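To assess whether the prediction recovers the assembly geometry, we first specified each molecular entity separately, as shown.
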Amino acid sequence: MRTTQLYAPTLRETPAEAEVVSQKLMLRAGMIRKAAGGVYTYLPLAWRTLRKIEQIVREEMDAAGGQEILMPILQPSEIWKETGRWAVYGEEMFRLNDRHEREFCLGPTHEEMVTALVRDEVRSYKQLPLMLYQIQNKYRDEIRPRFGLMRGREFIMKDLYSFDKDEAGLEVSYKKMFDAYTRVFTRCGLKFRPVEADNGAIGGAHSHEFTVLADSGESNIVYCTKCDYAASDEKAELKTIVAEKEEPLELEKVSTPGTKTIELVADYLKVSVEKTIKAVAFQNEKDELVLAFMRGDHDVNEVKLQNAVGAIALRMADEEAITAAGGQPGFMSPIGIKKGTKIVVDATVMDMYNAVAGANEKDMHFIHVNPKRDFKDVMVCDIRLVKDGDPCPHCGAPLKMTRGIEAGQVFTLGTKYSKPLGATFLDENGKEKPLVMGSYGIGVSRTMAAAIEQNNDKDGIIWPRAIAPYEVIVVPVNAKVKEQLDMAEKVYETLKKEHIDVVLDDRKERAGVKFKDADLIGYPLRITIGPKTLESGIIEAKIRRTGEVKNLTKENYVEGVKEILDTL
Ligand code: ATP
Ligand code: MG
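The predicted structure of the complete assembly is given in tokenized form:
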């Protein structure tokens, strides 16, 4: 490819719409253009990278036993109604009607579709295990499409579904996919961590997210500084903190004027925040009140809470809902709340002694609260949000928090979809059983964006070689000098014959402009042909990531380029 022909309209200025660095750099490097919020066109450079990522994904899925298919994006509502997700999926699903008023959606995921597919063909245990996958566009009307390709409304996903005859088979398939994902992200040249994840709306027994490490990531993850435990903050389990035992004193109501926050009340009563209990009030999708109680210095993990009460969604409660249940915003405790209200108390709170909690009256608190004695009709479980330094649930060493981008997720589904859709098979004894399933997704377009979030500097993108749109750019310092351009042409043709993805910058631009564009687009290696080459046969090779320059010669540059590329 020659830059005079390459359709990569670079921009000097950063477009105002760009919120994150990957979006900024892809727009500036002429890789993507926005069509609508969360909907983008991929220009040639982006498409080359996406195809390289897809190829790695494809090879690893095939090697793990997957078979590629292509299911329709347009999906009939019937199968979604059979599993109940037509109602549950909500506004994130793009829905449309055909001319006969039949309902369809644009596939946000394909569990229903693939299960309906195999239920008609898979009859016997002899046809199992089976792994089917596809790579195609997915559609989700995200509340906040943002950050360019990171959270699009149309995006590319690889989704694989496994079908086994039993749980043991599923474990094998899950492990195969876990290993395949590890190879995919390793081969893409990314720093990543598989972390234990919440199963979310899909449900099922367990799940891992493959998180590309980047400070700009939306996912908070924790990892143990000693053992190999790693989890998303939503999932991270926490052991109960047992407070030092005290003799329970008699419950007492005291006046605490104006102490609406936990810090104010702790200050007023001269106790540490660790001695206080705070409330966080939510309402579920049915508008029912859900009250969570935490130690004053702890935060509630909404995902754990949601799972604990079996809610589909939680939002902050309205004041009316709180008062209707006998609560007083800012001064709440489970004591005095109407019977039947959903109250969840964090396990750590139950092991506190003589604590401070609200009295459900304005400007009043209880002191000497002993939850084991005083809290009635409450559900107790771990609903605490992990923070830096919390002890590892496996080995007790301090956990560290870091940020990342969820690029892939693997789930065990069990029979969640096969049962309602009636996807069964006959086992060895001729008994009819539901298929045991798993589902495994990789965000291909998000992986490209994540690669840039992790690999960039002030000058532009730094592609890992495996997913760079082109591996090498050959730049004649002055393309107006015929000998330089001829030499550059020769090097370009030679490298091309060696199956290296190479670009020739044949523009009659100043060297500075060409170097700037090369850095912006992020070719892993830049070969410069200048006066030195003509005088003494030196060919300069500059590594984008390190800035290191190696002097190759007219005689050995092919080997030299290959050797350098192997390290990138
Ligand atoms: P998130 O929590 O970020 O919304 P998700 O958990 O809903 O994602 P999955 O259903 O697990 O996503 O989809 C599999 C993969 O598809 C994700 O790991 C991610 O890489 C990608 N993906 C999901 N939503 C989007 C999106 N809106 N834009 C781009 N990629 C996405
Ligand atoms: Mg996910």
